Amino acid sequence: MILFGILLLPFQKMAPVVSLQNTTCEMLVNPMGIDVVKPRFAWHIISAERNVMQTAYQILVSSTKEKLDANEGDLWDSGKVKEETSIHVKYDGKPLQSRLRAYWKVKTWTTAGESEWSATNTFSMGLLFYKDWPKGWIGFDRAFAGDNIKTDSRLSARYYRKEFNSTKQIKHATASIIGLGLYELFINGKKVGNDVLAPTATDYTKNVKYNTFDVTEHIKTGKNAIGTILGNGRFFAMRQNEKPYKIKTFGFPKMLMNLHIVYTDGSTANIDTDDSWKGTANGPIRANNEYDGEEYDATKEFVGWNNIGFDDTKWQKAEFVQEPSGVIEAQMNENMKVMNTLKPVSIKKLSGGIYILDMGQNMVGWLQIKAKGLKGKQIKLRFAESLQDNGELFTANLRNAKCTDLYTLKGSGLETWEPTFVYRGFRYVELSGYAYQPKIDDFVGKMVYDNIKTVGTFETSDALTNQIFKNAWWGIAGNYKGIPIDCPQRNERQPWLGDRGAVAYGESFVFDNGRFYAKWLQDIRNSQKEDGAIPDVAPAFWRYYSDNMTWPGAMLLVAEMLYKQTGDVSAIKENYPAMKKWLAYMQNRYMKDYILTKDSYGDWCMPPITVEFGIGKSADKKYPSELLSTAYYYHFTQLMIQFAKASGNDADIKIYETLGNNIKDAFNAKYYNEKGYYATNLLTDNIIPLYFGMVAKNNVEKVFKNITYTVEITNKGHLSNGLVGIQWLMRCLNDYGRPDLAYTVATKKTYPSWGYMVDNGATTIWELWNGNTADPKMNSQNHVMMLGDLLIWYYENLAGIKSADAAFKKITMKPEMINGLNTVNASYNSVYGLIKSNYNNTATQFTWKISVPANTTAMVYLPFAKGDEITEEIKNIKDLKMIKNENGRAIYEIGSGDYSFVVKKK
What we know:
By secondary structure, the chain is α+β, with helices and mostly antiparallel strands.
């Protein structure tokens, strides 16, 4: 059986899109409107046999399904290619034209035999040339009655419509749309697709993204109607007049759209945006602001506005407006969708006709309500993450974000409503304006994030570990908003680079985030200044170019993650010039005697010494550290050596080797103390040079001894790292021989720890270790930055699922044996297929069930002591390739398949 998919540049992590077994198939995804002229293909090979490796493949790409069924690859017939490659196979056929629909399939030859042809899959090309688009953008470049753009960034939604005739029989139709900042598209009264808050956000002066939909089923012969609603999103910037020196603005909402119809007789028709459309700003969405919320007046609804026959004589003629200066591009990352729904767990009445709704989970999205009342009466919804001691909402940590929705009833019985162009992070909702007591069943929480799959599972015998993992899942998912925002609730919600430096790596074990982070790397490249500077926030909605190593360096760390986890060398090649330019900028501007003298944040948000010491104090304090900036510069030289090799920039290898050696020597000369520590012996100051390989061999033991002393004795088993140090803590402890101490840190319930958050009611990850006591002005209860490398450690070291070669072509399976942790059950759906590790460890027996995907191999490390007996339940252990016994491990090399190992202890 073959599972196969299409890989699109920029990198799209392979997801199974068609399954084939005995010629039955299920279509899951058909990429629409791509603008990559050399798309890449990938497939999974599924077999019950062991040791299955691909020996050859053949791909057919055809212009019609009929030709593909006849095995005629008129666009591309790769022929039989004798290679193991089953990911990132680049298209090498005839040029692909705008709007082309292509049909393709693949067959493979493996050590288990020749496969059948896979099921048919399709993809379509978008609008490859500027001239393919309509002549003009439409919109209204001004405010209307009820708007307030001077103080509140209050702007009503804009509604547009157009009717047209389709007199012939339709073969197929596609709609390509750019609706800025956000859009909803309707044809004949029905919404097209189930995306929300689309398209993905960018710096619109650099690039704008379009979405393409197959709308064949929406179009009918005769009269048709198109309707769109435009919301503000990041285009009409929030708080744009509050700090004009800081916040980048783009203008009023606008759109560009092409509806392309192909008839059965071969003729075509285009319905484009122009001044024949009609528009109005006098609709029910009176305001929509990501920080403040949405105001909806149901008395202003116009029934049937997006269908044929609606009287739009009072609407205005749409106006041609200036286009954004950014390049038009197909959106390769997923849009957001409603990915989950939650029912509230309680509703409580307070005084003054106010009710508090508890969702039971800190979530990101919005609330759907059912309500009734007199026409013109208003229901008010206020959102927050937690409550005050008196049961009222705690909103101090929202800063000046109102996080409020207003719904004006139309008085027609039971009304159902949810917002369209806003989201927020919340657990609690304050309800007011009801003339009766609302019920729990009147509300549904809609969880919204990018439509990316959860590809990892993780569960252990330790309940606290499981809850921390669950909190991490909710926090990561909720902060996927087309960009990796820092938090979803207060007046910030920005894509800070520092927050995702190493956290993205851990996230990749849980979510299929390859396309997401490839897009973000493009955002970072686009934000780079001509002199090489990279901002702290990208896209640069805020003009923060503070110059430091730890924040902009996320570009290198994310590119490394994509290459390591998915094998996508384009993540390196596309970003290499920008990385090189930035490093040169920092070196030329700030390096003195090989010490990088500029830092901005230090080890951001280190925990106060005690909870009591941090009560009411702001964490928004910077402690710049030349030690950190210099160590990170060294680390990036080592990454650039790897990147230069991978991208063919061999001439740079020696340059970075020499520079790195000089930095290391200067660093040790300035910061190393012969007592075995760096600088003032802070935990992070020791971990960073040790894990980066900067410590002289004869000093490694002393430095690590100081690290373990700090954790075990000084900290009494706790961490003391901020954002920078926490990214490397767990792997450092583990890789230098103390996985037991890493587990101690990971399972503490007292301050400061992840368990402390859980013990104090957290259902996501806090921004601060003392998030229950710190000054609320910078105190998000849903941040992911303090996860550090915890998830990496969960998968690579507790579960034993680690890539030994790019994309898990070779897998290292070496779970740590930790007292008190009896079972670990984890899985990860890699680009080659599903990897599983499920073990149970008792005093007398170790049982380990694993799965290795076809076309890969694994090195497995079984715990083994002299006198132990190893068996493999399905086949004799003698049939497996024994490598050696070393350091209490029996090491075997195995091929693909399912295995069940048993180690009986003496």
